[in-house]
């Protein structure tokens, strides 16, 4: 009888241990599934859908690009309305699908190449500290020429003005470049109306606009976002970016 009780007790203990083990496995599996969902969500929830009905803003990129001039434009145009509505498709474009390396050493992966780039409403042309390779790259220059035919707006920042000059799309138009670069720009591209970069930060002439670049790229982006939306939305974007804090940071 005693032996039977011991067997029964051992059997119950084994059953309980098995139940706890199964419960533990279920909890572990559940936690693993939840973790997978979290990781997937963080990879996908920030992706913006491409909505064909929306204006498309194209950000040209190439190796050595100043990343602030890419980020400034995306910062401004990727912001939704006050009630969370997407207003633009913001895409990056490079000659190939390979990641480009910015002047600052970061790697940016383009959304499109020159071959499959969608129709653009606006094209932003950024700069590099050394523009020789870009200005002498016929694929980049021809891409700018081609997109100018369809784009309602073309914006250059800093030495991106050299690519505008090389393409010839803004001959006879006002343009400004980086501080100290105007004289050389005028010499190389005499058909441009180069403005005094020591006095002019931003200039607009018809569909073309330009800035000194770097953080001044926010000026050209904000000017165009207001033109394409409203003064109220521009103010909302400025508040979203805390630009008022930058203006008051010495107080």
Keywords:
251 residues; seven-stranded mixed sheet; alpha/beta; two-stranded antiparallel ribbon; Rossmann fold; globular
Order of helices and strands: HEHEEEEEHHEHEHEEEHHH
Shape: globular
CATH topology: Rossmann fold
Q: Order of strands across the widest beta sheet?
A: 5-2-1-6-7-11-10
Nearest-angstrom radius of gyration?
27 Å
Question: How many discrete domains?
Answer: 1
Average pLDDT value?
88
Helical fraction: 40-55%
CATH class: Alpha Beta
Strand % is 15-25%
Total strand count, please? 11
Give the N-terminus to C-terminus distance in angstroms: 90 Å
Instruction: Look at the helices and sheets and give the structural class.
Output: alpha/beta
What is the oligomeric state here? single chain
Descriptive account of the structure:
By secondary structure, the protein is an alpha/beta fold. The chain is globular and about 50 Å long. It is 45% helix and 15% strand. A seven-stranded mixed beta sheet has the order 5-2-1-6-7-11-10, with helices on both faces. Strands 3-4 form a two-stranded antiparallel sheet. It has a single domain, classed as Rossmann fold, CATH 3.40.50.880. A hairpin with a 5-residue loop joins strand 3 and strand 4. Helix 2 packs parallel to helix 7 and helix 7 packs across helix 8.
What order do the helices and strands come in, and which of them pair?
Elements: H1 2-44, E1 56-60, H2 67-77, E2 89-94, E3 100-101, E4 107-108, E5 112-113, E6 122-125, H3 132-135, H4 138-150, E7 153-157, H5 160-167, E8 174-175, H6 182-188, E9 193-194, E10 202-205, E11 208-211, H7 217-228, H8 231-240, H9 243-247
Parallel strand pairs: 1-2, 1-6, 2-5, 6-7, 7-11, 8-9
Antiparallel strand pairs: 3-4, 10-11
Helix pairs in contact: 2-7, 4-5, 7-8
């Amino acid at each position: 009888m005693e032996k039977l009780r011991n067997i029964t007790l051992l059997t119950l203990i084994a059953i309980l241990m098995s139940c706890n083990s199964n419960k533990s496995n279920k909890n572990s599996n559940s936690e693993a599934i939840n973790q997978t969902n979290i990781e997937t969500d963080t990879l996908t929830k920030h992706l913006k859908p491409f909505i064909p009905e929306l204006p498309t803003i194209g950000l040209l990129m190439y190796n050595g690009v100043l990343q602030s001039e890419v980020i400034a434009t995306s910062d401004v145009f990727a912001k939704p309305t006050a009630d969370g509505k997407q207003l633009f498709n913001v895409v990056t474009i490079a000659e190939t699908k390979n990641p480009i390396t910015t002047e600052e050493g970061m790697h940016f992966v383009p959304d499109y190449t020159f071959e499959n780039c969608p129709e653009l409403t606006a094209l932003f042309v950024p700069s590099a500290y050394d523009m020789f390779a870009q200005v002498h790259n016929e694929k980049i220059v021809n891409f700018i020429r081609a997109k100018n035919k369809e784009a309602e707006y073309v914006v250059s920042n800093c030495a991106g003005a050299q690519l505008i000059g090389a393409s010839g799309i803004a001959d006879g138009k006002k343009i400004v470049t980086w501080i100290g670069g105007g004289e050389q720009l005028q010499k190389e591209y005499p058909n441009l109306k180069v403005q005094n970069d020591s006095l002019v930060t931003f200039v607009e002439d018809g569909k073309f606009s330009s800035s000194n670049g770097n953080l001044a790229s926010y000026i050209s982006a904000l000017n165009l976002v207001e033109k394409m939306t409203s003064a109220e939305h521009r103010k909302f974007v400025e508040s979203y970016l805390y630009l008022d804090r930058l203006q008051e940071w010495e107080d």
